[in-house]
Each structure stands twice: as structure tokens, then as C-alpha cells.
Design goal:
Layout lengths: L1 H14 L3 H10 L10 E8 L14 E5 L2 E3 L1 E6 L5 E2 L3 H4 L21 H4 L4 E7 L8 H14 L5 E7 L3 E8 L2 H9 L9 H12 L6 E7 L10 H11 L2 E6 L7 H14 L3 E3 L3 H16 L2 E5 L10 E7 L8 E3 L3 E2 L19 E2 L13
Helix pairs in contact: 5-6, 5-10, 7-8, 8-9
Length: 366
């Protein structure tokens, strides 16, 4: 029996390719793929009065990651097509350096507000918990108007939540489908904002380009098991900006107010507190205006031994530009250990409630 095993092992080894043949096969294999992480940033530039600054060029921006200077890979403003400044192949050189000069052509300004938001993928998350019983119809009206105002945006998804997440309309360019989903929402039970926002971010993370999540909330979270810090970390790592509209007065919910403001600021978005349906409409208009003036920047990170949190700093170059304010996300974690890349619901048909928000894929107990 032992002799048989020895003979069989010798036959198997003789059939295996030798190391030299492995090297030759690798050298002749045309299907070698190199994965390079692209860091994407949504950047708003304003003056001291909050007015947006437009017409900036790639060379007007300086980006550092953990203090390491980075080279812009792509650039876009408003509705213009994203321009490639650095090829991914160049980014694979030592240090991510390239010999190609950056493009510096200033794009023509957009003509209409609808054109200015073209290219954005917008995920709307609507609170349908029992907090929303009063003013439910007014909230639906405000969201419907917001959807109509984004007629030239790339695609829109509409989700709603109470204890669980319901994907009413997956990311689509069909505005009628989104509006139908808005009108068919009904009020539910307790609110699990952070659970469902985490699931929404996982969906958004599957796409590239400019991605934003707009949350309409009417009260605090009272049933999530996910802390807001985890939600903010995933948004920062995926490069998704979060905007939040709360119908509660800031002074009535001090804790939620602080959390909303920290979370949105960390991701490059904004938080609004609307006391009436008129304020809600103004908040949606402000978000639309903000999306219209975002700069889209990206870069391939230089060699960086840090596998944990990486801080991002975006500044304007030139004495006359340093006076302006820059708003974007604060940083990211290359591969967040708490989150699994297993979000699959965005590929299925809408009009169904997803897995219970209390059982999140990849979630760890804290």
C-alpha cells in the first residue's frame, strides 16, 4: 500500500508544471489584473458668505493623504464629463507617479440648474416611522418636488424605513417610478435610522462617480443596533456624502442634532433642521443647489504603510484662493474591518422589504 502511494505521488508531481514553466506562463498570460484603489471626493468651495465658487481648475486643488501629496486622477465640475488626468496604469508606478501632465482646460459653465446636477447618483432615504404620522403628506410633497427638480441627474433611488428598510425604487433614471414609490409609502413603527442608513450606504458603495444619500428624518433613532460612528466610517470609506433633513427643532433633540451634524460634516454633506413644510422645501432646494456646485476629484493613493484611518486634506493653491472654504470628507479607512462587501439588494427588483435591519451582514457586536 505504501509503495502504491509513493508511485502515485511521483506520477502527480511529474504532471505538475515546473517553476520555470510557471514563470513563463505568468509572463505570457495577457489576463493579469492589477487592483488600484481610487479615492473619490465630492468637494464644495464657498466664500465667507456661503456663495459657491465655480470655474476652478485641477491645478487649483492640492490634496494630501496623511501628509503625503497626491496627484489628481480625475476632475469634474457640475455637469461636465469626468476628465481623466492620470491613467490607472500610471498609478501603478512606484509611488503612483506619472509623467503625463494634468489637463487644465476650464469647462464651459452649465446653463441650467438641472444640467448642473447631471451625473450624480442620488439615494433618498425617507423616514416612515411612527414619528412621521403628523405631516406625512407634506413630507411626501417635499420629496416629490425634490425628485422633479433633479430631472437631469444621472439616477435616483428611493428607499423608506421604519424598523426595516424598504427599497421602493432602485437606482433608476425613470422619475415616474421614483415618484410612484414616494406616493405609495405608508407610516410604520419604530425608527432604525442608523441600521437602514448603513444598508443604503452599502448599496451606494457599489457604484462609482458622484454619490450622495439624502435622509429625511422626523425623529431620533430608537431601535438601531448600529452606532452612528460605524455609519459615518462606511460613508467616508466609500466616498458617499450624507445630507440630512430633520423636522425636529435642534434644541428639542440635542443628542440627535449633534450626531446628525457630525455625521454629515465628516462625509462632506450638510444637516438641516426644518420646523415646517416650507423649511423642508427650502432644505431640499439647498441640497439641490449644493449638489449642483460640487467638484468631483479623485486620486490613486501614493504608497502609504498606514492600514488604518487615513486623513484627507484638500486645500486651494494660490494666494487669492486660500480665503475660500473647502468642504469634503475628512478621510477614510482603506478596508473597513466591520463591513462586508456583500450588498446585493441593489441588483434586484423593487417593491419589497429587505432583510430585517436588525440582522446586518458583516455586523459585529460592540
Amino acid at each position: 500500500m505504501t509503495a502504491r502511494c509513493v508511485v502515485l505521488a511521483c506520477v502527480v508531481l511529474s504532471l505538475l508544471p515546473q517553476p520555470d514553466s510557471w514563470v513563463a506562463a505568468q509572463e505570457n498570460d495577457p489576463h493579469i489584473h492589477v487592483v488600484v484603489n481610487l479615492v473619490q471626493l465630492n468637494v464644495a468651495v464657498t466664500d465667507r458668505k456661503g456663495n459657491y465658487i465655480t470655474g476652478l481648475r485641477p491645478q487649483d486643488f492640492s490634496i494630501t493623504e496623511d501628509g503625503i501629496p497626491e496627484k489628481l486622477a480625475t476632475f469634474a465640475e457640475g455637469n461636465e464629463s469626468v476628465r481623466r488626468l492620470v491613467d490607472s496604469a500610471d498609478a501603478t508606478k512606484p509611488g503612483g507617479q506619472t509623467d503625463k501632465p494634468a489637463q487644465t482646460t476650464t469647462p464651459a459653465g452649465p446653463q441650467t440648474l438641472g444640467e448642473m446636477v447631471a451625473g450624480a447618483n442620488v439615494f433618498i432615504l425617507f423616514d416612515t416611522s411612527n414619528y412621521m404620522y403628523r405631516g406625512f403628506v407634506f413630507a411626501q410633497d417635499a420629496i416629490a418636488d425634490f425628485v422633479r427638480s433633479l430631472e437631469s441627474a444621472n439616477r435616483i433611488a428611493f428607499y423608506s424605513y421604519s424598523r426595516d428598510l424598504s427599497r421602493g425604487a432602485l437606482l433608476t433614471s425613470d422619475r415616474a417610478k421614483v415618484l410612484r414609490a414616494v406616493r405609495t409609502t405608508v407610516a410604520g413603527d419604530e425608527a432604525a435610522l442608523y441600521n437602514t442608513l448603513l444598508l443604503t450606504l452599502k448599496d451606494a458603495a457599489q457604484y462609482t462617480g458622484r454619490r450622495v444619500v439624502v435622509v429625511f428624518s422626523n425623529g431620533p433613532d430608537n431601535s438601531s443596533v448600529v452606532p452612528p460612528e460605524d455609519v459615518a466610517e462606511l460613508a467616508q470609506s466609500a466616498g458617499v456624502s450624507i445630507y440630512m433633513i430633520s423636522t425636529q427643532e435642534a434644541k428639542l433633540e440635542a443628542v440627535s442634532t449633534a450626531v446628525f451634524e457630525r455625521m454629515t460634516a465628516a462625509t462632506g454633506g450638510k444637516a438641516y433642521f426644518a420646523k415646517s413644510w416650507r423649511d423642508e422645501k427650502r432644505a431640499f432646494a439647498s441640497i439641490r443647489d449644493d449638489l449642483a456646485h460640487l467638484y468631483y476629484l479623485s486620486y490613486y493613493p501614493q504608497a502609504n504603510p498606514n492600514r488604518g484611518w487615513r486623513s484627507i486634506t484638500v486645500k486651494l493653491v494660490g494666494g487669492n484662493l486660500k480665503k475660500y472654504n473647502v468642504r469634503t470628507r475628512k478621510g477614510y479607512r482603506p478596508q473597513p474591518s466591520r463591513f462586508a462587501a456583500d450588498s446585493t439588494a441593489a441588483k434586484s427588483e423593487p417593491d419589497q422589504s429587505d432583510t430585517s435591519a436588525r440582522k446586518l451582514p458583516g455586523q459585529q457586536s460592540r
